Amino acid sequence: MVIKYNKAFVEKLERILVESDYFIRYERGNFQSGWCLLEMKRIVVLNKFLNEEARVNTLMELIPQLNIEFDKLTIDSQKLYTFLLEEVKNVERTVDEEKGNNQNILPLY
Q: Domain of 25?
């Protein structure tokens, strides 16, 4: 699957949240990472000043961390959600490999 940094892809990512009974709000505020989660109310608040690329990246980072109800998702949303989970695994694998490679490097004094 190709990641597209456009409004249509943002809407696909948002659909995953909506289908899992999360509410999405775009608000101004002092957000460190571009989003804020009100866990008990299942509300995701995103910085409204994010451009399309930042919205895609923020949602892709956020969605795998949430309690998404896979069975509630449509087939298209299930495919996208599975893709996102695989992307997270790939990133974690890369980080672990880099840590392993760095352990063999001796510090310079």
A: 7-101
CATH number, domain with residue 42: 3.30.2010
Considering only CA atoms, give the Rg of the chain: 17
Q: Are 16 and 63 in contact (CB under 8 A)?
A: yes
* Of the candidates 64, 59, 60, the residue with the CA atom closest to the CA atom of residue 45: 59
DSSP H or E segment with residue 18: helix 7-19
**41, burial (CB in 10 Å: exposed 0-12, middle 13-18, buried 19+):** exposed
Q: pLDDT tens-digit profile of 15-43?
A: 999 999 999 989 887 766 666 667 678 88
* Total count of residues recorded for the chain: 109
φ, ψ (nearest 5 deg) of residue 20: -100, 20
Count CA atoms closer than 13 A to 64's CA, side-chain side: 16
As a whole number, mean pLDDT of residues 75-97 equals 86
